[in-house]
Amino acid sequence: MKLSRRQVLKTVSFSALVVGLAPRVVFAAPNALRSIRTGLQPGGKTRLVIETSSRPSYTLSYGEKKLIVNLSNTNGKADAQTKLANGTLVKRITQIQDGTTLKISAELGGLIDAIDKKQIMILEPNGDNDYRLVLDFVAGTGRGIAETGTATKAAKTTKTETPKETKTKKQHIIVIDAGHGGKDPGCIGRGGTQEKTVVLSVAKKLKGKLEAEGYKTFLTRSNDTYLKLAERAEFAEKKRADLFISLHANANPSRNVKGFSVYTLSEKASDEEAQKLAESENAADKIDVNGFEQFSKDIRVALSSLQQHAVAELSEEYANGCAKSLNRASIEQQKGPAVRHAPLAVLRSTVPGALIELGHLSNKSEEKLLKSDSHQNKLVAAIVKSINSYDFDV
After folding, report:
1. Of 23, 127, 255, 372, which is least surrounded by CB within 10 A?
2. d(Cα 4, Cα 12) in Å, to the nearest integer?
3. Spans of all domains in the chain
4. For residue 19, how many other CB atoms are within 10 A of its CB?
């Protein structure tokens, strides 16, 4: 029986815990585009096939007579073989490299509805073929596409759930990590607001909302306690969490900089600012030199490449969905990419997760916002929506 990525993570992480290890993730090389082709299927269906060197992690976006496939951690290829069959809805294909995300834009001869998940397949390598993302669709009226013009992986699900679906959702375990704490206040705003206080307040609100939605949630800290980064990651491992969310507030030498950003783990920072943030956040353990040395030993165990790739894909999928949810809630985004990558020690585990910088305490107006219950509730609502939209069962 073939295991899903989630089952692979559960199996390997549990084995690691049994022998007392704190796993460390080492990421595989970026994915690479191989080819793009279209075909006509029975019933007048258009089939779009995107071939990549490794298993793709994707989201779908829609425009006016346009379908965009966003492939995370993927490099484009200008001379990739592209074959467009006659009689399909796809008239033209273009590639757009947006940081580490490759956008495959298909210009269509008409409107389509949001593609149902049942019409999407990821095929394993076979013969001369590598991994293939296959999407089938027909002409439609644009139904099921969000007002913003985007949808992730499939059409929106209805709010009405069957008892079976509700039961499944309750089994998902979320660990919420309020950054810093105790002797480590984190960054401090001009008005004296401490990061550790803001993020703990948001974490408690988030826990309450998620439990109301039926999730099983845990806080790494529920009071003003100092925890080493290794302890936070290990806590998520021991709870066998399905998702780990670390909450932080940012600071910048320029007091004009503001907005949220979302980070996933990478051995190499995506940009200079991401590297500086990693150094700042990882320094929390250097408050105790001995503790930091012990942490370094705890995280040195490497897992199989299969598991590394699975946790990377799942983390990237959540991060992209979280950024979109925050944008849709009209929460200001920091200039630059919404999702960034950095060697953040707190994310080194077998649990998929992301670090969310809720805003900048170094910005006077945003410091005021981050202290307010109304803005904290707005942030929480957006994060809850991102978790509800996340596919736990892949």
Report:
1. 127
2. 12
3. 31-151, 163-389
4. 7
Residues 270-297 have pLDDT tens digits of 456 556 555 555 555 443 433 333 434 4
Residue of 323, 244, 270 lying closest to 59 (CA atoms)? 323
108-139: pLDDT as tens digits: 999 999 998 888 988 888 777 889 999 999 99
Would you list the DSSP string of 316-348? HHHHHHHHHHHHHTTPPBPSS-SEEEE--GGG-
Structure tokens that stand for 266 in this block = 């990478």
Count of helices and strands (H, E) across the chain: 9, 19
Q: Is 78 exposed, middle or buried (0-12, 13-18, 19+ CB in 10 A)?
A: exposed
Q: Which two tokens stand for residue 90?
A: 């796809």
249: helix, coil or strand? strand
List, as one string, the DSSP characters of 302-322.
E--HHHHHHHHHHHHHHHHHH
Please give the CATH superfamily to which domain 163-389 belongs: Zn-dependent exopeptidases (3.40.630.40)
CATH number attached to the domain at 31-151 = 2.60.40.3500
Q: First-to-last CA distance in the chain?
A: 15
